[in-house]
Design goal:
single chain, 241 residues, mainly alpha, 2 domains, 0% strand, elongated
């Protein structure tokens, strides 16, 4: 394939979803005739194992809290950004100037803050809040635009998220026999074996069905690769487990 899935970069849910989608693509065809049943069985076994572990992780009492707190801090950040943008159109120059300063402070950290992985977003928002609270001119601009309570909300949500997230990671780390990372490598190997088999058969005995599988899986890879979270160049905390 010209475009391969960057499986190791996918978040756990996307990793499992991709494998399931790839399996579904193959199962649209007569896999027995195409001699793919053996490799598909291996892939399916890996998916079941991943589902079992991921189900345990997702079942953690803190999972919903993590997702809710992540949405809460995203809303606070988005609200600040939108309000600053609105004030940039204000009829009074002092408000436009303050809005421009707040927007420029946010822009230092890039345009995709809310799409970063969990830990990267936590550190980025922590630095941004520090700028809002400690840089004199920026702090004055925040006050000018009546954004102090919004910044307080962003800080509180980000702090609460980090506390729950670290607690959950500790929870999962205490289950070494159920570490999803241990299952990713064989799952990737099973997927690669399946695709290599399809490609080999198509080379030896070209078949429209083999080509369709390759083309559709490649389209799937393009879709999933486009949603890989953006990393921060120098994270201040360990990478996401």
């Amino acid at each position: 394939m010209k475009t391969n899935p960057r499986l190791i970069k996918y978040r756990n849910a996307a990793f499992i979803a991709f494998l399931k989608d790839a399996r579904t693509i193959c199962e649209k065809f007569n896999t027995k005739t195409l001699k793919l049943d053996g490799e598909l069985a291996k892939l399916s076994g890996g998916i079941v194992a991943l589902d079992n572990v991921f189900g345990t992780a997702k079942g953690s009492a803190s999972t919903d809290t993590i997702e809710n707190l992540d949405a809460r801090r995203d809303d606070a950040f988005t609200g600040i950004s939108f309000i600053a943008d609105a004030y940039s159109k204000h009829y009074e120059a002092e408000y436009r100037g303050a809005a421009k300063l707040v927007s420029a402070t946010i822009a230092k950290y890039g345009k995709r803050i809310v799409t970063l992985n969990y830990l990267s977003e936590t550190e980025t928002l922590r630095s941004l809040v520090s700028d809002f609270e400690n840089q004199g001119d920026v702090k004055a601009a925040i006050t000018q635009l009546h954004l102090t309570e919004w910044v307080n909300e962003l800080k509180a949500a980000n702090t609460a998220f980090n506390e729950v997230y670290l607690s959950r990671n500790q929870e999962l780390s205490e289950q070494p026999d159920q570490n999803i990372l241990d299952l990713k490598k064989p799952a990737i190997e099973n997927f690669n074996s399946l695709i290599n088999l399809v490609s080999s058969y198509n080379t030896i005995s070209p078949n429209a069905d083999y080509k369709k599988i390759i083309d559709e899986v490649e389209e799937l890879a393009i879709k999933y690769n486009a949603n890989i979270p953006s990393p921060v160049a120098k994270p201040k905390t360990p990478p996401q487990a």
